[in-house]
Design brief:
9-stranded mixed β-sheet, 216 residues, alpha+beta
Length: 216
């Protein structure tokens, strides 16, 4: 971003272009970032990231397609002493679908819950876009364990962060594409296919994109 006078447009492939102009900058809150095949940072290769916040001060997002190993949600609730070993976890109808993900390389010991907007905690829940919110307190985990949390949720350990202008620079250098988010790409179980489905959402064939990147 240059002196806060950068505007953004997207071409048909979903690639974001930044150009100087007098209009206010447009940010990517509520969008999904899709790593280009040439991404050489192993922390983000083939990642799909939901952008929770983006401004002149930087950006923050949650990787939504990387499971956190063998950790499951009930196990994590017990590890955090939210419920004890002898207690039943009264998950809501969708509670069993709460996935534990590796949200990014920053602050990996902390949990961040992306969830539907049917649940909020005053002064703790950040509304983002299109019915998606972010809450990072233990209270939401307690609510989920007691069966009255949000209908849809994922728990991410850590997040991805960018300094001011860093994300814009990475996009300009073909590090990322972006597309509109939807509930399935955020909350869906099939994390292995999210990368390909996100590309297909903007009309891009992964095989063709990989070939082009390989001959760049």
């Amino acid at each position: 971003m240059v002196e806060n006078r950068t505007s953004k447009t997207a071409n048909k492939s979903g690639e974001t272009r930044f150009a100087s102009g007098g209009s206010a900058p447009t940010y990517l809150d509520g969008q999904l970032l899709i790593a280009m095949p040439v991404m050489d940072d192993e922390r983000f290769a083939r990642s799909v990231i939901y952008v929770c916040a983006h401004s002149a001060d930087g950006a923050m997002g949650i990787i939504v397609n990387r499971p956190a190993g063998s950790i499951d949600f009930p196990q994590l609730l017990r590890q955090l002493d939210i419920v004890d070993e002898s207690s039943d976890i009264e998950l809501s109808d969708d509670g069993e679908s709460v996935r534990v993900l590796r949200g990014g390389p920053v602050d990996t010991s902390r949990g961040f819950v992306l969830h539907s907007s049917d649940f909020s905690i005053e002064n703790a829940t950040l509304p983002i876009d299109d019915g998606i919110c972010l809450t990072a307190t233990l209270d939401i985990l307690k609510a989920i364990a007691q069966g009255h949390g949000p209908k849809h949720a994922i728990l991410a350990l850590g997040y991805a962060g960018w300094a001011p202008g860093q994300l814009e620079n990475e996009i300009q250098h073909n590090g990322w594409l972006h597309c509109p988010a939807d509930d399935d790409l955020i909350f869906g179980h099939d994390t292995d296919d999210k990368y390909q489905r996100a590309l297909e959402k903007i009309g891009i064939n992964l095989a063709m994109l990989s070939n082009v990147a390989g001959h760049a």
